[in-house]
Amino acid sequence: MVQALRSARGHLAKAAQLLRSRTAESQSLPRPMSLPAALAAFMPPASDLQQRPPGRSATSAASAPPPEATTQPPHPSHPTRHYRAIWLSDIHLGTAGCQANYLLDFLKHNESDQLYLVGDIIDGWQLRRGWYWPQSHNDVVQKLLRKARKGTEVIYVPGNHDEVARQFDGLAFGDITVREDAVHVTAAGRRLWVVHGDLFDGVVQHARWLAYLGDSLYTLILAINRHFNRIRARLGFPYWSLSQYLKHQVKNAVNYINSFEQAMVDEARRRGCDGVICGHIHKAEIREVDGQLYCNDGDWVESLSALVETQDGELQIVYWTTLLDAPATAGRRTVATA
């Protein structure tokens, strides 16, 4: 972990140095090298820059080849896609790490019959420490309320960061229904248990102080991630999650994720469901675990991902790392198919 942080700090320092010397180099060199080409020597390797492993088939996860990444050039007239259902979680409104502009862009270009908000929509932990609520966060709330008013069935399943909302289980606010958990039936007839997942996190349940400490460290890493990607954007590189990269290099974190997935599918089986849809660990995934379908819709502070169900009942993970309504920049919108 320490080595990975030092490596990230080195990337930031070198990028800043190149930015400061750009003008001087352009005057001294007869044919200046492009800045992206100059950075290629010390940027993370191409294998690390792949933002997320693609989703795999629920029936042949081990053998199915990864789907081709699709790139859609940013354009304000990009057509709106309509899904049977969309799952969003871990938005963390009220924190500086929330990628509200990307989420707003996603909500503008994607509609659904049902919309599940799978916990940690508002970060009450951070708001208790200090108030942070820019206009873009308010716009997200208004956008969700507007979708509910226009006929989308919006179901809010609170998580640990917005657990205060659990006391309103079964009530509706502004056409949004609050549920402790839910069961979604796909077009193919599969029953999927929808829950945030924090109740199966031993740290959150039995060592709350440790969870708060981890949350503070995580916030620091996200701050580094924001500065890192600000430099990448200026240099013409697409969004890349430094925080995800660091987390996946730590063996204990990988073991924790595997244990979490196993606990979730075991509980879904006990409830008579065919699988589970959750959030909480900020790692988007679609795969089979012991004959059960495990789906995690990711988050909107690191992976910028959502889980969707097409009208044909196909589950997909959508990574929204390009602002379609922004000026054309290097970026990618990747769709991973289940």
From TrEMBL:
The protein's Enzyme Commission number: 3.6.1.54
One of the record's GO molecular function terms: metal ion binding
Chain ranges of the Calcineurin-like phosphoesterase domain: 86-283
Annotated GO biological process: lipid A biosynthetic process
Entry keywords, A to Z: Cell inner membrane, Cell membrane, Hydrolase, Manganese, Membrane, Metal-binding
Record has Manganese as a keyword: yes
Pfam families with a match to the protein in the record: Metallophos
Protein name according to UniProt: Ser/Thr protein phosphatase family protein, UDP-2,3-diacylglucosamine hydrolase-like
Lineage: Bacteria, Pseudomonadati, Pseudomonadota, Betaproteobacteria, Burkholderiales
